[in-house]
Design brief:
Pfam families: DUF6934. InterPro entries: DUF6934 (IPR053865). The chain has about 150 residues and is an alpha+beta fold. The protein has one domain. It is about 25% helix and about 35% strand. The chain is built from three helices and nine strands, in the order βββββαβααβββ. Strands 1, 2, 3, 4, 5, 6, 7, 8 and 9 form a nine-stranded mixed β-sheet that branches. The longest helix has 18 residues. The radius of gyration is 15 Å and the shape is globular.
Length: about 150
């Protein structure tokens, strides 16, 4: 992706949590990217959202801060760093809404050539965790990616 990324991302020592500050026309908004273990071996869920005042992650708020591409590029950079540290792990994610999942599909489709040089990219289209290789025109419910190891 040829977009700027946020600098100064704070990383928890175990690489489970990454935090940064979105800066845009609505001010500064704290963001968190979190990786958590799933019941499936070597599959980790990626959660992303605003950090609420009580410290919880809110993945439903629409910040509308005017920095969507910079945020998406920052998430990609975090996934790259995470999968360098843990190349055997798969990263699972979906949008908290259908609209967000569609946004992720469009971003991946737009940058597929670059992304597929680094990652294996799979999608779930039925909601049954039955993953197939990414294709642009599919109605996607979730994504599963893994760093390519050469």
């Amino acid at each position: 992706m040829k977009y700027d990324v946020y600098a100064g991302v704070k990383i928890k020592s175990d690489f489970s949590t990454f935090e940064f500050m979105s800066e845009g026309h609505n001010g500064k908004i704290p963001k968190r990217i979190q990786f958590t273990e799933t019941p499936w071996p070597n599959i980790y869920n990626l959660a992303f959202g605003d950090i609420k005042e009580n410290g919880d992650l809110d993945d439903l708020t629409i910040s509308n801060n005017g920095d969507r591409n910079k945020i998406l590029a920052t998430i990609l950079k975090v996934v790259e760093d995470y999968t360098v540290k843990f190349p055997e792990r798969f990263v699972f994610f979906s949008g908290s809404t259908e609209h967000r999942t569609r946004l992720y599909r469009m971003a991946i489709g737009l940058h597929f050539e670059e992304l597929s040089s680094k990652f294996e990219i799979y999608v779930d289209i039925k909601g049954e965790r039955d993953f197939i290789p990414f294709q642009k025109a599919l109605n996607i419910r979730a994504f599963l990616i893994k760093r390519k190891i050469y």
